[in-house]
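SAMPLE LOG
Freezer: B-3
Tube label: C17
Construct: single chain, 70 aa
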Amino acid sequence: MDGRHSLAANAAAAKMMPPVTEMKMPLSSREAEAIALRPMRSCRAMISRQAGRIAVALSENITNGEMPRP
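STRUCTURE (predicted):
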């Protein structure tokens, strides 16, 4: 993953977070947890997409005979 992807993910996560002045206080524990997990969900989705691409590339390489079967 190059720097552009991580910068884009950080910017997207920052946009999802409301500024502190807009946040109502006090937050319920469920609301606080949801806000805390937003960037993690974004990263998890990005990682799973990347893992999918790697799996497809590996299976294509094995099918094409470019790599020995495990």
